[in-house]
Write a structure and sequence with these properties.
By secondary structure, the chain is mainly α. The chain has helices spanning 17-25, 33-53, 65-100, 107-146, 154-176, 185-214.
Length: 215
């Protein structure tokens, strides 16, 4: 009989929900807000897929079949990205803690530590901006689904939109907290531009999604 892997050996996204919540509530810094944002985004994309699966193949919605199938395919890609990010964000923050803990007695050690910290801060900002951009895609899908899927599932699209919108802002907060620590000015400028772009799409679509689902 093969032993089951211990919870500590499993990626966070493979844990039972209660185990993940216990880890989140515990005394360790990971998983934290970034991982939680990724999970919320993954839940949102899964809801979009559910709505599509309960619409596709039904004669009543045959005119939207192709669009619904396309929405579902994109939602599943977003779900995979966000699911993987549940662990990736925790890993990125773990790398920051490892870098901060490096020895710094000699000039050589200080230089290595500074370099490791910059690499870690880079990833600690890169992962959440990718989470935010995946959530933007989910909000776009919510807008498309609101007009083409089973109207009895409108409340599920509403939940998906709120989850994705909250996850987007949570992920952005995790980008912004790293900006003052980054010395790569071009990378910081790129991150700021991507934040602005993500929020612009959210602002343009979110209220429209809610209006359509409530109608």
């Amino acid at each position: 009989m093969t032993d089951q892997p211990r919870a500590a050996d499993q990626p966070l996204y493979a844990l039972p929900v209660t185990d993940y919540l216990d880890r989140l509530a515990g005394g360790e810094p990971t998983p934290g807000g970034g991982s939680s944002a990724a999970l919320a985004g993954a839940l949102a994309s899964a809801l979009v897929s559910m709505v599509c699966n309960l619409t596709a193949g039904r004669e009543k919605f045959a005119e939207f079949e192709q669009e619904v199938v396309q929405i579902r395919a994109v939602a599943e890609r977003a779900r995979r990205r966000l699911t993987e990010a549940v662990q990736a964000d925790a890993d990125a923050y773990g790398a920051v803690m490892d870098a901060v803990a490096m020895p710094r007695e000699t000039d050589d050690e200080k230089a290595r530590r500074a370099d490791a910290r910059q690499r870690a801060y880079h990833d600690a900002a890169r992962v959440p901006i990718e989470i935010a951009e995946a959530c933007v895609e989910v909000i776009r899908l919510c807008d498309r689904a609101a007009g083409t899927t089973n109207p009895n599932l409108a409340s599920d699209i509403t939940v998906a939109a709120f989850l994705a919108g909250g996850a987007l802002e949570g992920a952005i907060a995790n980008v912004q907290i790293n900006l003052p620590l980054l010395k790569d000015e071009a990378f910081v400028a790129d991150l700021r531009a991507r934040i602005a772009s993500a929020r612009a799409v959210r602002d343009a679509l979110f209220d429209h999604v809610i209006e359509r689902t409530r109608a």
